[in-house]
Fold this protein.
Amino acid sequence: MAGMGERATVRLMALVRHAAFAPVAWGLAALFSGSIVFALEPSVLEEGQLVHVAQRMAAGEHLYRDIVYYTGPLPFELLAFLYRIFGDHVMVGRLAMLPFMGLAAGCSFTLARQAGAGTLAHAVGAVWAAAPVVLFPMLSIFFYTNLAFYLVPVACLAALRGREATSWAITTGVLIAAVALCKQTFGVALAVSLLAAVAATAPAGRRVRALAAIAAGGASAALVCVAVYALRGDLSVFVYSLAALPFELEGSFFAPYMNFWPIGKLTPELRANAPLYLPTWIYLRTGILVEPTWLAVAFTQLLYASPFLAILASLALAVRRGVSPAVWIHLAGLVTMATNLYPRGDWGHLVFVLPSAATQLLFLLPVRADSPWGVRVLRAVASGVACFALYTLVVVVGTWVNTLARTPTFGPEIPLRPVTPSTRMKSIPRVIHYLRNRVYPGEPIFVARQEPLIYVATGTTNPTPYTGVVMGIRERQQREIVAALEPTRFVVMSDIDQPLYAYYSDELPEVQRYLERHFRVPADFEVDDLSWIQVGARGPDLGVTAIDFIDARADARFWRRGRDGRMRAAAATPIKLPSRQFRRLFAIELGERGGGADFRVDVPPQALFQADTGMAAVISMSELHEHPGGARHALSISFDGRQFETLRTTRVADRSPRSALRWQPFFVDLSPYAGRTVTLRLELIADAPLPEGALAWFGSPRVATPPPGGGAQTP
């Protein structure tokens, strides 16, 4: 009986292992997973960039000449091509990603089978098939990293076969070039690592021929791309955008990496941005502002460590007993994926590494063809259990996220159901619907920071060459944006303003000043406690800045008033606060009875002091700062630096009134003092004792003079 059972098991396992339908089956399983989530979760930044640029290209604009970008052209050209055929609908790109998901899953399964993984190859197929759902939402959108991510397993399988077949080697080179034309860093890493793996594992008589064929395939694809851009007359800007511009941006996207110790704790640098580092599942479950548990953090640390553990384990195993060529080839793919963790090693980048890390670890499990049949049965059962568990997870998670998904709220152009807490908020839909009711089709607006999907959702155009802030080319960017803003009626600005994202006022100060001078949140645009993105409408020209108090704060004397009423020196820069509603915050450290800052200024003719008050609270690095309620903002003047005359005061709104959620103008005519040198005092006066560490702020305080040709300076 044992012999019959062994023979039956061997036949069954051989059928499962060698059946031609298996790669196709896992490809179809990946398609199924992708179909569960492909219509969920609009991506305002990543996918927004691709969709917005492809729409512009389909309308006749040229990538790199008319649109500034710094990654490869393949995803943009592919999506623009599809738009010309099927129409420029966001779902076109989502549907286009499904075949790539299936191709990656099928190729990963085949690579595992050729690595001798046996029935464990099905676990590899399941990993890739489950990834779009389990790692939702990043892997289901159309994005350049996604396209490169799905092409890497295909290139690895081609490289394995290219060791002995020239046609496959040429195909490998073409695929490496395709990856590079999606994301240059991926392409360089894949070229170096795959060439090294092929050189190390190819038969001695085939090594040079295989490497030459790979190089020829890659060079041919690159030459075709160069020829296309040369014929368009865009060769010089193409070379600059892909070879020079990325180096100008070097370091602009750096973010702290996940700490591996202590287990279960985030370092202070990461705590302020925990939603970026922890898995999306945690915030779908707990909400974006909930403090993560130590177990959630420890689990996250293990996930971040997994790629490095897989690489080290592979090298250790290779030294100990050697590994198959397929393991080396796939290790090259894993190293390529791991480069995505630099310079921003957050969750949105880690998701592109985890499937390869899991696959590599499965490759390293001991699989011997001459193992006792009982061991092989157990291995087959374990593989089946793993596949069943992964696909059960797909069904559970897929059902869960579809249950969380709400009715599409981004307008008819974006029929994607929001799932995550940030997209379920009213903030972005409020902006979209406000603009749709006020702009004409194709009207130019400016989305100032990093939300280009808003152009698509509102049917408007972008008058600038930029999809968002491109850190590192300040002067050119400021010049082109300010010129493009002249005819615009509306701008959109998010208040996500902190070191990890860059302070907009630091990166593009001239654009910030232009927005402060010409735009403010209109009275009929609704704001609430959770508003983080606003519409700005063009208003009266507030004039030319003669003195910017934020820029001049180093020359000011800061002080705080104690309980006894005496003034004591205070920190000049207590904290860097984010901009809110188109205004920078001039922060003042307070004592129990208030505080302020004194500026010695030469008052120009027709001068007007301009500032804003009333913003009740700001969040900086996840820390809430509430403005003292029931106090008074004041502007005073002195001619000798000792005796001050109050020019104007205004009561600070308490936290509850709606007026506390938006700025209120605080303007004072200084023209009677023109030509004189005076001391201006910006102050918060507290009627009741304030808590330790309290801050006050004015919004973009400055002295302005009338615009050229005159005109109103009041809002």
